[in-house]
Amino acid sequence: MLTYTYISKGKFGLKEKPIPQIKDDRDAIVKVTLASICSSDIHIKHGSVPRAVEGITVGHEMVGIVEQIGNSVKNVKVGDRVTVNVETFCGECFFCQNGFVNNCTDKNGGWALGCRIDGGQAEYVRVPFADTGLNKIPDNVSDRQALFVGDVLATGFWAARISEIKKEDTILIIGAGPTGICTLLCAMLKTPKKIIVCEKDESRIKFINEHYPNVLTVKPDECLEFVRKNSDHGGADVVLEVAGTDSTFRLAWECARPNAVVTVVALYEAHQILPLPEMYGKNLTFK
Question: In the prediction, which pLDDT does 187 show?
């Protein structure tokens, strides 16, 4: 089968590989019907994901049809349409038992697909721990509608969940790409008092204004002053940083009020440094 493969730093390429086979009774083989390119794939190409293994098939956002299942798989059957979770997990280790499945200690757990084992930018993919790694797609939901469920929508949901958003809060979301919009949708479920989205791209700003008229929008160079004017305590109560640049990381903690929560949703190409003397006394919680 044809796969899109991480060959070496800076180099991806098409490569023929055998169709994957069941290796464990908890595995499933999925025929991929639709996959997307995540910004994390680009980070792998640039060499900024140290755990990524050269030679793996990339891709962790995909949907498909179950082609084969191991003897222990109970939750899906051959022929089911499914989404594939970005993070597969054993469900048995300390981290899984405490809800931190991204830190699953199994070699096939956590972010394995498309990073440490072959992923879904291929015709077929082997999914470990299929009972927890696959979700059935309802008949009234298309593949395209379900595509983001396994990664960016789940990422946005988790980010909103751990950010401790309260109804009286003003929250700031930096970045309105696909993950930023998914984060926005999940933050809206918390019904905070006010949501501000910071974005530099005009088309994305237009999209937010058209579809979510109650959400305030601002460009990065005006963001700090805008947030201070539109919040009750000199800054946002919660900041979710979804853009992933040096400047937006700094903007995130600058726009946060003292004792706020700053949730880093993005990945970065380079190490980020906290200027502790400058931010001393803000008592921020980073997640």
Answer: 98
**CA–CA distance, 287 with 127 (Å, rounded to integer):** 29
Res 134: pLDDT: 97
Q: From the options 1.10.540.10, 3.40.50.1110, 3.40.50.720, 3.40.250.10, give the CATH code of 155-286.
A: 3.40.50.720
CA-based nearest residue to 110, from 95, 121, 120, 98: 95
CATH of domain 2-150: 3.90.180.10
Phi then psi dihedrals of residue 239, to 5 deg: -120, 130
Q: Which residues contact 85 (CB under 8 A, 6 or more apart)?
A: 132, 133, 134, 135, 150, 151, 154
Q: Which residues make Cβ contacts (< 8 Å) with residue 201, sequence separation at least 6? A: 176
- Cβ-contact 125, 118 below 8 angstroms: yes
Contacts of 271 (CB under 8 A, 6+ apart): none
More confident position, 280 or 91: 91
Instruction: Tell me phi and psi for residue 4, to 5 degrees.
Output: -105, 115
Q: Name the strand (E) or helix (H) holding 35.
A: strand 28-35
Contact 134, 76 (CB under 8 A): yes
**Annotated domain spans of the chain:** 2-150, 155-286
The residues that bridge with 31 in the sheet, in sequence order, are 65, 124
For residue 274, the model assigns a pLDDT of: 82
- Express each pLDDT in 210-255 by its tens digit: 999 999 999 999 999 999 999 999 999 999 999 999 999 999 999 9
pTM, two decimal places:
0.89
Radius of gyration of the chain (CA): 20
11-25, 26-40, 116-130, 260-274: the lowest-pLDDT one: 260-274
